[in-house]
Design brief:
This is Transmembrane protein. The protein is mainly α and about 100 residues long. The chain is built from two helices and three strands, in the order H-H-E-E-E. A hairpin with a 4-residue loop joins strand 2 and strand 3.
């Protein structure tokens, strides 16, 4: 009986436990998750700079409408209208609050 106790102290029980497998899956998930986050943090600025340089080469403003806005007095109000039906994309129709219109209406 003493021999069996010595053998158990040298070589402990090697049965499979579900808790050990769960910890292994958790470690693998954390490894790949942290690798994905690191890749996203590195790749995002690189891809952004590539997109900006390509749109600058094409002569586009990034597809943005460069309309500026400003403030006017409370007594003078007007409406700006732009339409896809007008002959030029830069055509603007200005309508004052008294109904008068000017521009390309």
């Amino acid at each position: 009986m003493s021999i069996e106790r010595d053998w158990d102290s040298i070589r402990p029980d090697r049965t499979f436990r579900a808790g050990d497998a769960g910890m292994g899956i958790l470690r693998i998930t954390l490894l790949f998750g942290s690798a994905a986050v690191a890749l996203a943090l590195i790749a995002t600025p690189f891809l952004d700079s590539q997109t900006r340089s390509q749109s600058a080469r094409d002569g586009l403003a990034g597809g943005l409408d460069m309309t500026s806005t400003g403030s006017i007095g409370h007594r003078s109000t007007y409406t700006l209208r732009r339409s896809v039906l007008q002959p030029l994309p830069s055509s603007v129709c200005v309508i004052r609050n008294d109904g008068s219109r000017y521009g390309e209406c």
